[in-house]
Amino acid sequence: MFGAARRITALTGAGVSTASGIPDFRGPNGVWTRNPQAQRLSDIESYLGDPEVRRQAWQNRARHPAWSAEPNAAHRAFADLAGSGRLGVLLTQNIDELHQRAGLPGEKVLELHGSMFGTVCMDCGSTGSMKAALERVAEGDEDPPCRACGGILKSTTVSFGQALDPEVVREGRRAALDCDLFLAAGTSLTVYPAAGFAELAAKAGADLVICNAEPTPYDDLAAAVLRGPLIEVLPELAAVASDDSQRP
Length: 248
Ligand code: NAD
Ligand code: ZN
Prior knowledge:
Elements: E1 8-12, H1 31-34, H2 44-49, H3 51-62, H4 73-83, E2 87-92, H5 98-101, E3 109-111, E4 114-121, E5 127-129, H6 130-138, E6 153-157, H7 166-177, E7 181-185, H8 194-203, E8 207-211, E9 224-226, H9 230-246
Parallel strand pairs: 1-2, 1-7, 2-3, 7-8, 8-9
Antiparallel strand pairs: 4-5, 4-6
Bound molecules: nicotinamide-adenine-dinucleotide and zinc ion (ZN).
Protein name: protein acetyllysine N-acetyltransferase
Pfam families: SIR2
InterPro entries: DHS-like_NAD/FAD-binding_dom, NAD-dep_sirtuin_deacylases, Sirtuin, Sirtuin_cat_small_dom_sf, Ssirtuin_cat_dom
């Protein structure tokens, strides 16, 4: 099935980055599994309404493991799949940019939940770099305001309660409908609309392949479910696709 797939759409989640030292949210060592209170920091209403939540969010951002993380074999497998011409689009819920750093061309990556390396003003929309904002935090400005209008600054990530970019959602839906195999990897398939893309693809006739250590709500819809570690499973799948693409 995998070797025969001509056009793959992939959806990834936090599980592809755990081997790079970035914990997921809902796995056994997940940030929310260990501390359910932490979810409040990802809620847009708390962020906008409570300066203490913002101070905590900037501190957490500064300590985020993604600053020193390196892409792993799972990220590289997607770059290889693209290299063998099989991968159309990769939708990711991750905000760590490790797919791009592993060599997957930026135009193939659709960041459903944004990136943690940028900032945006919630009032005037002006954008900046996270590095620059964190330098202000390190200099003592615990909740740095927008330099243009004094508004509240936030990372360019999508918090709970915030809408996804409608153009990104449209492209995601198009990619889910325009594939013969939909590969969901390292995601609990519990956050929408991301999880809905897997269902949409399967119902439109694509083979759904789920690679995840724990069960997901869509396992019954899947043509195959692989539970092994992603740094092993994904390179194996990429190798099957590449062998097949070299056949005459
Ligand atoms: P999740 O935490 O809900 O699910 C991750 C899944 O990956 C779990 O079911 C876990 O069993 C599985 N998993 C973890 N490590 C694995 C491994 N090595 N091999 C196989 N399976 C493994 O994550 P989600 O579905 O992406 O949803 C969480 C939300 O959190 C998303 O919205 C995302 O934006 C955000 N998030 C991003 C990052 C990141 O950028 N790296 C990290 C944490 C959370
Ligand atoms: Zn502003």
